[in-house]
Write a structure and sequence with these properties.
35% of the residues are buried. The chain folds into 3 domains: 102 residues, no CATH class; 139 residues, D-amino Acid Aminotransferase, Chain A, domain 1; 78 residues, Dna Ligase, domain 1 (2-Layer Sandwich), CATH 3.30.1490. It has 12 helices and 12 strands. It has 386 residues and is an alpha+beta fold. The strands form 2 sheets. The chain has a 7-stranded antiparallel beta sheet with strand order 10-9-8-7-6-11-12, sandwiched between helices. It has a 5-stranded antiparallel beta sheet with strand order 2-1-5-3-4, covered by helices on one side. InterPro entries: RimK-rel_E_lig_ATP-grasp.
Amino acid sequence: MEKELIKINREIMKNIASGLNKISSYVGKINKKKRRDRELQECFDQIRLHSAKELEEQMEEYRSDEAHLNKLKEFNKRFLGGYNNIGWNMLLCTQTGIMSEKFIPEDVFVNHIEPRLNNVHHARSFQEKNNYDTIFQDIRRPETLVRYVNGTYFNAHYEHISLEEVMNILASHDNPLLLKPTLFSGRGRGIEIFQSGQEEELINFIHKNKSTHYSSIVQSWVNQHPELAKVYSGSVNTLKTITLRIDGEIVHLMSRLNFGGGTSHTDKIGYIVGVNEEGQAQVIAFNKQTLKKQKIHNDSEIAFGSIHVPSFDKAVSMCKKAHQRLLHFDMVSWDIAIDSEGVPVLIELNIKSQGIVQMQLTNGPLFGEHTEKILQNMNLNIYFNI
């Protein structure tokens, strides 16, 4: 009898411990969601701040459009688990002129949709740029010169090398050198450019910033296609393309062009413009910082509507081919350069915190004709399923 009581007590304690762990895990997820929501709200407020004067009248018109608001309410109830914040939809509708209930709010995407499309626990390994040369061996990538991981240098073939060998490799290269964090370098974050002869400055920068550049990669500057360089030559202008797996098939969802501007060596500052299925840029572009609409690039005075992406079909095909290897991820955002020979070059892929506001600004609702198909089986509950 005593043994039975001990066994029962152990089982009770085990169940209590399991319950407490589940509660702790759920509270942790709630707090993480709150932090993400605060960050996204700050992003939303910043966008509103830049364009408040121009949008105020349009927003009043939006709020008085009862037919649209009723459609939005029904859509949110049916597909977004009762989401009731109209802010993101209002911003996207008024900015694009497309009155659609199918725009996906950034906070819903980050907190609920993306984690259902992609296994975020595997994301870091696949986004690590030092792994690209093994996963995508047959796809053109920027030339890798040196890798820096855990305080150790490696060459392009993953062989350990000395600091002297690093200096010799860098010194023998004529093109500008790009030092990139191998994670979280989206929108140009942490990217530094060094000219020929600045090898010591590059090495000193790595050592000085070990904490923030724990894993880095040094690559050669991509000589981009002249059709894109003539729009802005100060940065490598890139094509952002989203691919989506639906019923096992990879489809092209949408694309946009990113152009640098001013004195920027990356396209973090500059312009975004949508691209149609034929690779033709739209007439209207958005300033990345202010979201101001304009028809020409301020530096080159080239009309955005006159731009056609060289080798666009090849770039999309390359992204779809590469996506087939990423079995844990149904939605991938790709950053692609087009080199001087017209060959697409894989710069970066994003599978976590992809960011969808700029894509929807330039192309309309994220999932387009696939919206209902993608959302209907997710059973989203904004307040409980985290």
